[in-house]
Amino acid sequence: EMHRISVEDSMKTKGIVDAYGKVINNLRPGEENKLRQDIDLAGTRLDFDGICGADNKRCEVRKNADGTDALDANGKTQLQLNDKNQVQFIAEDDKGKPMSLAAFLATDEGKKLAGVTGGLRGGTPTFAGYAYTAGGVIDRVFKAFAGTHDYIGGQGVGLYEEQGNIRRGMTDAERTSYNTWSAVAIVPSTPFAMAEFLPPEVWKAISILLGAVK
Fold first, then answer.
1. Mind spelling out the 3-state secondary structure of 153-169?
2. What pLDDT was estimated at residue 13?
3. What residue ranges do the domains of the chain occupy?
4. 50-75 pLDDT, tens digit each
């Protein structure tokens, strides 16, 4: 149930698109066509403070009629979504050319957005910065933990906003608190993860043994 709730929350956002049409959202590429229970939720969700910058300098912002930035009640710029409700990434490289999201995520600033277990959910699956193979043991373990951990360690404690992305405007203390809880949340997620990780035949055998004991 927690996996299903996390999947539905993750699918709310339309993501972010770069100048080359590459879109990153809160699902692995191609996962949106899978059954809900098979969707991989390992990795962190979109963090627009990290991608766009707290001042939105790397993303398109709303403009007034005179061309100046349209500010909200707190005097901050506001993201300008395209006709698909996607955030628009407009950063440039050191040569003045449009930077791709992939190139940004490979920078020191971009690497900060990847979680230790799973990396950035919309990007390449990684473990501590190293890519891992889909279908392997690490992949299976992360998938087993992901849905429950995403709910207990994030959604259930208010880490995500109404579009399912990481909440913006957090203080360093708040981020540290959430990161700490995310690590702690692995413990209560373990029983649920084991239930998903072990194959059905093993659980059938366990149930038979338990029945025999009774």
1. HCHHHCCECCCCCECCC
2. 96
3. 2-213
4. 999 999 999 999 999 999 999 999 99
Asked whether 182 and 153 are in contact (CB, 8 A), the reply is: yes
DSSP 56: -
Residue 130 CA to its chain's centroid (Å): 17
Sequence-separated (6 or more) residues with CB below 8 Å from residue 117 = 42, 43, 127, 142, 145
By residue count, the chain amounts to 214
Asked if 59 and 16 touch (Cβ cutoff 8 Å), the reply is: yes
pLDDT at 41 over 60: yes
Contact partners, residue 39, CB within 8 Å, separation at least 6:
7, 10, 27, 28, 31, 32
Which pair of tokens denotes residue 84?
């698909």
Average pLDDT, the chain: 83
37 Cβ contact partners less than 8 Å away, ≥ 6 residues apart:
3, 4
Provide the 3-class DSSP secondary structure of residue 213: helix
pLDDT of the residue at 213 = 54
Higher pLDDT, 80 or 188: 80
In the structure encoding, which two tokens stand for residue 51, read together? Answer: 């991608």
Question: How large is the average pLDDT for residues 91-115?
Answer: 94
* Measured CA distances, 45 to 39, 66, 83 (Å): 14, 35, 22
Residue whose C-alpha is closest to residue 15's, from 102, 101, 91, 85: 85
